[in-house]
Design a protein that fits this description.
The complex is a heterodimer. Chain A is of the alpha+beta class. Chain A has 2 domains: 29-237, Cytochrome Bc1 Complex, Chain A, domain 1; 259-442, Metalloenzyme, LuxS/M16 peptidase-like (Cytochrome Bc1 Complex, Chain A, domain 1). Chain A has helices at residues 2-13, 76-83, 94-101, 125-138, 143-160, 164-176, 190-194, 200-210, 226-237, 287-300, 305-313, 345-361, 366-382, 387-401, 406-416, 419-429; strands at 34-37, 43-48, 54-61, 104-109, 114-121, 216-222, 259-265, 272-278, 317-323, 332-339, 435-442. The longest helix of chain A is centred in the middle third of the chain and has 18 residues, at 143-160. Chain A is globular, with a radius of gyration of 23 Å. Chain B is α/β, with parallel strands linked by helices. In chain B, 43% of the residues lie in helices and 15% in strands. The longest helix of chain B is centred in the N-terminal third of the chain and has 21 residues, at 127-147. Classes of the chains: A alpha+beta, B alpha/beta. Chains A and B meet through helix 1, helix 3, strand 5, helix 5 and helix 11 of A and helix 3, helix 5, strand 9, helix 13 and helix 15 of B.
């Protein structure tokens, strides 16, 4: 009995797995995969791993808050994500079916993507493919259900208002962008969220427009037979009709001068400064784009000169980050600093601007660049621990390119980045005319 | 067909014989194929060990260790060396335990381990590091805790109210005034007293080489000897009636937390039946949750509604249960996510409606029990869902540590839970839930604007009906009438109001 129990334990515990070799000469992503494309344009990637008994399934809709270009519709991609759990004729109760599977499932929306994911036993593979394909093709909900869900969204919106960072991001995006849809957060503007119950008809149009096979990518990772999975995907997804209508997103015109704003949080908060520069769109092969991502870590990461000075030596700043991860369209290269005392805000801002100038003026330290490349690669490899982890690590490649092949290209480009490339990125992007500075402060009494 | 089975058995026996003995005070989880190695160093001390007036000392000590210079390297050097590995380590302090956790790719094991070990074994205790970490903590106490997450704050206040007068009373991070008074010497003394070789358990997991855990243990055996005093388990006062704490704060939506102490630990016979009952009533951040169905799905009142039989700190940031928050006393807890307030005339109606709905559902569950069908669906769900709790190496290792805390035998909590749920029947679950669940004697916490208005509505017992933006089914509207008038037996003297700036001041 003891041995049997142990076997059970081992089965349960042996969910992690290891690829044969973690780095190959020309490849960073250590797993083999199969790509398939149906005649309707749907792409799926099958990534078998040794994960005993588990599969992770993600449907990536290449639509997010970015697609909300029509006035009054901000927050709609996220709202629609909620509606996807409201059932179909075949499966009126989505929750009941996934409950019986014991699946961990959820969804999320950001600027460029809406993703739907499940982790479940491999025995549920066919049921998952059936269920997911059905709701993407045949979603059906009443206007009453739609209005009820709008209430849940308002709850989500309201609970978010308690967080000062949300106020900061909201002001930052609105200040930095004039016409591009990145001007609003995924949750949407408050007035649009409050008007959501009236949007039933629009929601049907939204589904028809964007929830189409040529706008979606599926990743299936874990313990499954690829041949069988391919047959199932063909069987269930083939009836899905094309019909994607591209959004009419206006490109953001070049910024002409630095911008500044202050936002007051109705409560107490550490003064927080955000200095954002207009950046490029993501690319796996464009050296300047990849160098821009490297630049964020080199110039503002935990091993940067400014971090040592502001956080460790002078202790003016509690936390400093340089998040230069790129978007599908040109977005922001963002430096954030939480400042301990309000009187230090001007000095901190100056230090950030000086750092931007410093990286324009001279090439970065080659060792720091090497270490940064290593950090980016190991960061990626460390995230490939579970089937779900792998899907999440690959998601952005699928969002930006419609496939995951670019992953190795991206890391090849990263390998080739030189100090001169990083300098070129700084010269191009960390410029005064592309800068937006927003400072978050506690609201003043009586104001 | 027989041969492979035999071979497997033989290999199992061989491996069992060939494995070096796990040294005392060491927990191992060898997964030879894993490209990672994870560490979990468990110090048997937590916020319950904080001296009076120095609440927050255990947490500040751990934070200082995981975020500072060592005698070998300055903090700057440590960050520089960790950076190319994309690795780090962190500490976490709960009521009874402190853990230091970290994970690295095997490629970097030697360099990583050296930094990780030194952080715990040879802290430099530099004044400038102390100043930096203490400032961060004070910022958190004065600002972030009060003004960035009302939901988490309502939960922390719930625990405080329930555990008043016990070593669980104060939040792990301490109070504004108590942390303000902590000196570097306090930290050094706490370290000397609790970071001893008899009081530290070493956990190592993943793809390490044979014999490696013994080497790690040997390093940690260089800690000074000493067995600190034990703290008796907390004995929270039983609640009589409904006690209410209302925090007055400028907010758009009101989070609600309520609960009461339960005599139920992981190691108890009723635990797994209650795990299933709780999963049905309020599985964390899952639409399986019955309360979620009633309050959010059918009525769209908020973002989610969940229940707990074990402490679940920082639930907003995780889908799976937190690890290494093992305790000798637990509460039954309900988390109603913020309910958006309506216009002034009906302010608090939605809040109190949600509260009433939750009380009623708990009482209905006790009265009716789970049906066989509900039970079987939940049984299938939970058995499979639990697999997700141990998805990563670090989590599996952390569960092993918790198993040692609770004295749970092999094959460990996660495997036992599956086995036990599989063998359970509905009668067992209903017996357990009738023993442990109720909604008449409890503590509730609300964070809201116009606290006085909420108090008056509570005391008056006035009905709190709600309206909908769209059409609602007749059955829901009928049920709404019952919920809106559902009694909340609360006395005026059992309601306390405090301002947000008083919260956790001392």
């Amino acid at each position: 009995m003891k041995t049997l129990a142990w076997c059970g334990a081992l089965l349960l515990l042996a969910l992690s797995f290891a690829p044969a070799a973690l780095t190959r000469a020309d490849r960073t992503f250590p797993f083999d995969f199969k790509r398939m494309e149906l005649s309707n344009g749907l792409r799926a990637y099958l990534i078998p791993t040794k994960a005993s008994g588990q599969i992770a399934y993600i449907t990536i809709v290449r639509t997010g808050a970015r697609e909300e270009y029509e006035p009054g519709r901000s927050g709609f991609a996220h709202f629609f994500e909620h509606m996807m759990f409201r059932g179909t004729r075949k499966y009126p109760d989505y929750d009941a079916v996934t409950t019986r599977m014991g699946a961990a499932r959820n969804a999320s929306t950001s600027s460029d993507v809406t993703q739907y994911y499940l982790v479940a036993s491999k025995d549920s593979l066919e049921q998952i493919i059936d269920l997911e394909s059905d709701r993407f093709m045949n979603l059906e909900y009443s206007e009453a259900a739609f209005r009820t869900e709008a209430g849940a969204i308002l709850g989500e919106f309201s609970q978010g208002r308690a967080n000062p960072m949300l106020h900061l991001y909201e002001k930052l995006m609105d200040t930095a962008f004039d016409v591009h849809t990145y001007e609003h957060l995924t949750i949407g503007f408050e007035k649009d969220v409050r008007a959501m119950p009236e949007g039933y008809e629009y929601s049907i149009a939204f589904h028809k427009r964007y929830y189409r096979p040529e706008n979606c990518v599926i990743l299936l990772t874990g313990d499954f037979d690829p041949k069988h999975a391919e047959q199932l995907i063909r069987k269930y997804y083939s009836p899905w009709k094309r019909g994607y209508v591209p959004p009419e997103i206006k490109p953001e015109p070049p910024q002409q001068a630095p911008r500044e704003a202050i936002v007051e949080f109705p409560g107490q908060t550490l003064p927080t400064v955000s200095v954002a520069y207009k950046g490029p769109a993501w690319s796996a092969t464009d050296r300047l784009s990849v160098a821009a991502e490297v630049l964020g870590m080199v110039a503002f990461g935990p091993n940067s000169r400014i971090y040592r000075k502001l956080v460790i030596q002078d202790q003016k700043v509690q936390a400093l980050t340089g998040d230069f991860a790129l978007n599908r369209d040109p977005g922001l290269l963002l430096v954030l600093a939480m400042v301990n005392r309000e009187e230090d805000v001007p000095a901190v801002l100056r230090e950030i601007e000086n750092t931007a100038e410093e990286f324009q003026e001279k090439p970065c330290d080659p060792k720091l660049l090497n270490d940064t490349r290593s950090a980016m690669k190991y960061g990626f490899l460390m995230s490939l621990e579970t089937p779900q982890g792998i899907n999440f690590a690959l998601r952005d490649f699928a969002v930006f390119t419609g496939g995951i092949e670019a992953v190795d290209e991206y890391y090849k480009t990263l390998d080739s980045i030189t100090p001169a490339d990083v300098q070129a990125a700084a010269k191009k992007f960390l410029v005064d005319n592309g800068r937006t500075t927003v400072t978050l402060l506690s609201a003043r009494e009586g104001k | 067909m027989r041969k492979p089975i035999l071979a497997v058995l033989l290999i199992t026996v061989f491996v069992a014989l060939a494995l070096p003995q796990t040294p005392k005070g060491t927990i191992t989880l060898h997964e030879p194929d894993s490209p990672f190695v994870a560490f979990n160093i468990w110090v048997k001390a937590g916020s319950q060990n904080d001296p009076q007036g120095k609440e927050g000392l255990a947490a500040l000590t751990a934070n200082l260790l995981s975020d500072s210079s060592t005698r070998q390297d300055s903090y700057e050097q440590i960050l520089a060396r960790l950076y190319p590995m994309a690795a780090g380590y962190e500490s976490s302090v709960d009521k009874e335990m402190t853990v230091f956790t970290g994970r690295t790719h095997k490629d970097n094991l030697a360099a990583y381990y050296e930094l990780f070990r030194n952080a715990i074994l040879s802290p430099a205790f530099k004044e400038e590091d102390f100043r930096r970490v203490k400032t961060q903590t004070m910022n958190y106490l004065k600002q972030s805790r009060r003004f960035s997450n009302d939901e988490e704050l309502s939960k922390e206040l719930l625990f405080r109210e329930i555990y008043r007068g016990t070593p669980y009373e104060h939040p792990e991070e301490g109070y504004v005034t108590s942390v303000e008074s902590i000196t570097l010497d306090d930290v050094k003394n706490f370290y000397a007293r609790y970071y001893t070789r008899e009081n530290v358990v070493v956990g190592v997991g993943g793809g390490y080489d044979r014999g490696y855990p013994a080497k790690v243990r040997k390093d940690f055996d260089t800690l000074a000897a000493g067995k600190p005093e034990s703290v008796p388990p907390p004995n929270p006062k039983p609640l009589t009636g409904i006690k209410v704490l209302i925090v007055e704060k400028n907010t758009q939506a009101t989070p609600i937390s309520f609960g009461y102490p339960i005599s139920l630990l992981r190691s108890d016979a009723d635990f797994f039946p209650m795990m299933l009952a709780n999963s049905w009533l309020g599985e964390h951040r899952n639409s399986v949750s019955h309360l979620y169905q009633v309050i959010r799905e059918r009525r769209g009142m908020n973002y989610g509604d969940y229940t707990y039989i074990e402490a679940y700190p920082r639930g907003y940031s995780t889908q799976v249960p937190p690890t290494n928050v093992s305790r000798r006393s637990q509460i039954f807890e309900v988390w109603i996510r913020p309910v958006a307030m309506t216009d002034p005339g009906t302010l608090h109606n939605r809040t109190l409606f949600a509260f009433r709905a939750a009380l009623r559902e708990i009482e209905l569950l006790v009265k009716r029990g789970l049906t066989k069908e509900q039970f079987e669906t939940q049984q299938t769900f939970l058995k499979n869902y639990i697999v997700n709790f141990g998805a990563t190496l670090s989590r599996r290792l952390a569960y092993e540590i918790d198993d040692h805390f609770y004295g749970i035998p092999e094959p460990g909590f996660l495997a036992l839970a599956r086995k036990s749920i599989d063998a359970m029947d509905v009668g067992r679950v209903n017996d357990a839930l009738r023993k442990h669940l109720q909604a008449r004697n409890l503590q509730a916490v609300f964070i809201t604007a116009d606290a006085q208005g909420l108090k008056e509505k509570l005391v008056s017992g006035v009905e709190t009906p709600i309206t909908y933006a769209g059409k609602q089914s007749q059955s829901v509207l009928e049920e709404d009438k019952i919920i809106a008038a559902y009694p909340i037996p609360v006395k005026e003297e059992d309601i306390t109001i405090i301002g947000i700036n008083e919260v956790f001041e001392r």
